[in-house]
Amino acid sequence: MENFTYYSPTLYEFGRGAEEKTGMLTFLTGATKVMIVYGQKYAKTSGLVDRVANSLRTIGIDFVELGGVKPNPEAALVYEGIKRGRAAHIDGLLAIGGGSVIDTAKAIAAGIGYKGDFWDFYTGKTPIEEALPVGVVLTVPGAGSEGSGNSVISHTDEEGVVAKISLRTDSILKPRFAVMNPEMTFTLSGYQTAVGIVDMMSHIMERYFSNTTRVEVSDRLAEGLLMSLIAEGPKALADPTDYQARANVEWAGTLAHNGIVGCGRREDWTSHAMEHEISALYPNVAHGAGLAVVFPAWMAFMAHHKPSKVAQLGRRIFDVDVKDDRSAAIETVASLRAFYSVALRMPLTFKELGIENPDIDTMVTRLHINKGETIGGYYRLTAADTRQIYELMKGE
Amino acid sequence: MENFTYYSPTLYEFGRGAEEKTGMLTFLTGATKVMIVYGQKYAKTSGLVDRVANSLRTIGIDFVELGGVKPNPEAALVYEGIKRGRAAHIDGLLAIGGGSVIDTAKAIAAGIGYKGDFWDFYTGKTPIEEALPVGVVLTVPGAGSEGSGNSVISHTDEEGVVAKISLRTDSILKPRFAVMNPEMTFTLSGYQTAVGIVDMMSHIMERYFSNTTRVEVSDRLAEGLLMSLIAEGPKALADPTDYQARANVEWAGTLAHNGIVGCGRREDWTSHAMEHEISALYPNVAHGAGLAVVFPAWMAFMAHHKPSKVAQLGRRIFDVDVKDDRSAAIETVASLRAFYSVALRMPLTFKELGIENPDIDTMVTRLHINKGETIGGYYRLTAADTRQIYELMKGE
Asked: What's the complex ipTM?
């Protein structure tokens, strides 16, 4: 176990009717006028924005609205939010939605008091020092932004080149509160639910696969969350209105990414980076679906190069009962693949992702330009290695 | 899963050298002059108080000292602390020690700005509305007060009658930060280490044994923490300077009691209440040692009256492989007993606690006067039931 600082000051208000407390929770952040940020459909058409607005009115908090956030949120809307937020003299943000909406609200919260371009924080040009308080009403579990200090925004330059950057902060951008009513997730499709679950499981596993030894507490918490998702995820798919399944999945998704399973160890975000190169080239690929393809391939490579922790995972969560580490790791990969493809109906290959002729050359080149000659913490991967992992995703 | 609010704003600074950050962390609470509260020996003789004092001086924070806190901390020292703290115009508390020291600091933090008697908060006469910020440098893991909003203080009235009351707050008394350097626990004896581990495991199990169904996430986290303690605890006993074992035990102890494993369910603190009656009558009994006797007896009773969750625990953490719930529960109790007595060298019976003729009549009577005619959440216990459980502790 290595030294760590853990600070997770977000208040989670969880359960049926939790959204009614939004006004009071916003009041407690000290805000008097907030910008309500939301997406393109659900928040508005379901009447949720109106209900939240009423909760704010009751307690005397003024607000303006900013709708229309899209998946892979764009800097353009952040600029608009900053402009309108300044004009309205807001002193807080309230995000109603999933990761894209929350990340947009965080970007506005950071940019509004800063004289320069908010994008400076994302490029690393300027360190972020203050931000308006952000509250969240979560409607799409998966990204984990409700409990994290991160924000991912895509920025398109004048030549049309898109840069998608994840800004990571220790606590400045952590939401002050997150209202989580699992009933709000009943209308998510099976596909949306499944990609959320894969994203959650990836957040856990990127922390789990670590070179740091003797992290028994963090390992057991990670394994426990994975087992919860494996048990409850398929129930949420089978019956979208199974409140208890939805509740367990949603809560696991928050804990997957609020840092608790990373305590005391170096994390390894290679699979996320490898997936980013896929969805950068093939923008129709949902992040979670891409991860369902990448992670088992990454683990299959590790089964041959460093099987120990893959084997531990399988023995502890999939009841793998083989002594030899390599064989146990191979069985673990098979179990994970079966869970993704059979239980969650997720793709496992480029072909199933809808990519007939994957441009692996470009992905490998960009990956190592972005991340360095060798990448990874659990095991250092050269370009030849990452090529091999991408090749495995062909599934031939 | 039931509705819940989870708010754990304590910053944990964990690892070797963490205490050097005490000054900076205290500064971030806004305090300018703190009272350093500590116990009778280790904090002072080890030089820790001086090192922390230097860390405060470096950053320009003034301080006064209040030493001499004893186990089962008394109101008398709280009154003294409030008086001296007011005279010195302190605006923060810094506890260096374990549960007793932290609980004393919390009581002073609550009482110092209150015109009446601080004990009003504990008796429920007055709700607590504000408190000075409390920081912690943890030297004795187990009680979990570094991450909880609770404070247990004993108050002796004019006739010499002792009332030991646990004040529970949602967040007002939660420490702002906890500095945790596992090296500080190297000098704890095997006995101190073991009673701490039993206390931690009890904190987890009192939350685990719940009537609330479909709490898969919280169940898995609880089981994970228990497995960590079962794996790492004996290593800390075998080699008191095994940093990694100490670190895993200490971190598990915080998570055992900061509320994370209780999310979404009704808890059942019957075993803690039953133990309190033992240590009230026999003050030499350490809380953790008493719990090692009570908990297996309570579980043995449940094996015959409501075995389901006892069986689940055993199957998941002790590899119990029996289909019938009652048999599985009985095996679980045997496994827990073996762990407590063999691995931790803890007592399992009144006799091993040093009590030859336990006054079960008085304990049962007081228990039900204090807690009601029937007690417990997982299973409602009558006086006849609790008597039977106490009888089981005779081990005959």
From this structure: 0.96
